[in-house]
Amino acid sequence: NVTRVGFAVDLGRKNLPLIRDPEILAGVETLVIESTYGNRLHANAVNAEDQLCDIVSRTYARGGKVFIPSFALERAQELLYHLSQLIIAGRIPKHPIYVDSPMATAVTKVFQEETEYLDKDTQLLKSKIGSFICPNCVRFVSDVEESKKVTASPGPLIVIAGSGMCEHGRILHHLKQGIGDPRNSIVIVGYQAEYTLGRRLVEQQKEVKIFGDLFERKAEVAVLNAFSAHADRNELIEYVRQVGPRKVFLVHGEQEPRESLAEALRDELGCDVYLPVRGDVVEL
Asked: What pLDDT digit, counting tens, does each position of 155-179 carry?
């Protein structure tokens, strides 16, 4: 017998810039799908730009810096796209935007060169200004010495740096210097795993450790859920509904959202749902 297995372990969402919308897998009998946000709903992805505009405008009005911990692949480029749109529309001023991540810099170059893989909105922006980012506002930080100068420079400005969960990378140096300033903002635009500094910031903890030292958090923390690249509970359920598999295996999620999504899929779609753990062997 032959069975068709489909994998949707980093599903994505509709209406995100740059990348195309998720495709529905056809003829799949067994679906392995993520459950990252199996118990949560996001703000509409089309609201992401407005959310970003609000926090940047507030911070600029205070003369502060906007620190955005970001994943280097897709998220950093998505932020640059939205910030460029806001600048072009005159919704935020043309203050410096620093990309302080060698990997994000390299990936952005690939996005710039391979636009045929991107969605129509992104290609339209490139046809207008020759790029999907505002080249006269965005500055790619080349080395550690330049990164130190950005850290020491006054606001208003924006820094996009890795790592996305604030566990490693240059974002830690910026946070160390700026987290105690109430004029500044830390903008969370992606999933923050348990026990990470990013999760502690999401939880609005008053004191956090950076490089082993304790710092009082006075900077504003804004969590922009509309930026999530992972599908939320309703989007996951709808995707499974459209694929129509007989069996569903839920992976890539903490236990609570996995169990919540499993219950919903069983109740709403009547699926056979499995929650595999490391080492499980399944016969299809």
From this structure: 999 999 999 999 999 999 999 999 9
